[in-house]
Amino acid sequence: MGVECRYEVAQAAYIKLVLHALKHRTSPVGGLLVGRLPEDNASTVQIADAIPLTHSQIGLLPSLELALIQVEEHFGAEGLSVVGYYHANERYDDAELGNAAKKIGDHIFRYFPRAALLLLDNKGLEELVKGKGRDLVVQLYTRDSSKSWHQAGSDGRSQLTIKEPSANVLLLDYISSEKWQNIVDFDDHLDDISKDWLNPNLFK
Amino acid sequence: MVGAAEEAQLNRLESQVDNGGGGAWEYLCLVRKLKARRSEKVLKHGLSILNDPKARSRLGGEEWTLYEQVAIAAMDCQRLDVAKDCIATLSKKFTGSLRVGRLEAMLLEAKGAWADAEKAYARLLEDNPLDQAMHKRKVAMAKAQGNISAAVDFLNKYLEIFMADQDAWRELAEIYVSLQMYKQAAFCYEELILSQPTVPLYHLAYAEVLYTMGGLENLQAAKKYYASTINLTGGKNTRALYGVCLCSVAINQLTKGRNKEEESSELQSLAAEALLKDYKHRAPEKLPLLSTMLKNMKLIS
């Protein structure tokens, strides 16, 4: 397992997942990551978009399965598939990747062996908002054949980059304009199907 | 828990007040009644009433309830200065009150002074061993410190005494789900259904846990509880309709090749039809996606 695993996340995906977490500050949130492994650059997984999933019961299967089916169906037409899962913990000082997130990651890993787990870095986000931080506010975890999820950066092998360098600037702008109010997740859709989990008008 | 209609009403009032249309006191009362957690808005609008002497005097005796509500909202938003002021005002008016003592202990919690808060609650509980709110604060503190097993412990002990507390059973169920302890979560929902058999939320939550546990018996039970949810909600609950579909597919996969028991094959096709109808009406752009999914599940042709 000496293959280098690089992940490039698109601004839209990155911002959506942070906004999702900010909308539901008092509960854990999770969502799917869709993307592709391009043929001409097989060392970098491109994470193109994020689909917010839930802000309540992370450990339950029905809505996860429904979302996986519908997301795969929708994005398949664009040549994208589910490549990972993102998660934000309920408590501010909880920086651990919990078991529920790992289990979902394992499930996705079965279909996409380069699956990525992104955990929101709560403290990093606070630093960013205060104007003190400049890094991406997510932590990448990848899995190898040993069945455990490793934090990227600790072994130098996996790496997360973002396509657009000004992503954090845009993120801060959205945070100050409270854009998170408009974000819709799959849970919201199940409560009211007129709400669209694709969030087509979020960035307009 | 807040139902859809109540949530809509709350949101309506909230945007009315936000846009300067008045009704702040109504909004605050509704938040209190529904026990919704909207601390930023409560803080903003509550303070605007409290800081206006005329508006405050108009409240009469309710003024003190507002101080308490704003104090708690302030703590949730980490505006400890505001919380301190409110509590000081209440303390002057109601010296030695248990309710104010509880707020003071909550303030210690908000500051992160866990040991002090625990001592404060212990003292108050000595004189008032049956105060439910304080017992629940102990659970909340354990949860906030990340000590989930302690929270589960406390909550179980609490429920041995106060076994009719629905909110506590729900909280325990949700904690068990977060720990992937699904059997235990199922037990909590069974208690809830036993005591309140006509609340659809409990049937739905139970079905979701059973489905997650998997296995033929659980899936068959899940289907029954999704069905009872559909019954209790007049067929309007999307999750229950989807749930019936998911269960049928999963059950079919498990019983392939075996003699199928008397299965009401109508239920899932009816559910599928209901979903299609609803999506056509309210989410037409998602209709093709839904149709493909249901076709692949062989629930429609």
UniProtKB/TrEMBL annotation, chain B:
Main localization category: endoplasmic reticulum
Residue stretches making up the EMC2 TPR-like domain: 100-209
Keywords: Endoplasmic reticulum, Membrane, Repeat, TPR repeat
A Pfam family reported for this protein in Swiss-Prot or TrEMBL: TPR_EMC2
Membrane topology: Peripheral membrane protein
Subcellular location: Endoplasmic reticulum membrane
Keyword flag DNA-binding: no
CC annotations in GO: EMC complex
Entry's family note: Belongs to the EMC2 family.
Subunit composition and interactions: Component of the ER membrane protein complex (EMC).
Function: Part of the endoplasmic reticulum membrane protein complex (EMC) that enables the energy-independent insertion into endoplasmic reticulum membranes of newly synthesized membrane proteins.
Listed name of the protein: ER membrane protein complex subunit 2
Taxonomic source organism: Elaeis guineensis var. tenera (Oil palm)
Gene: LOC105054963
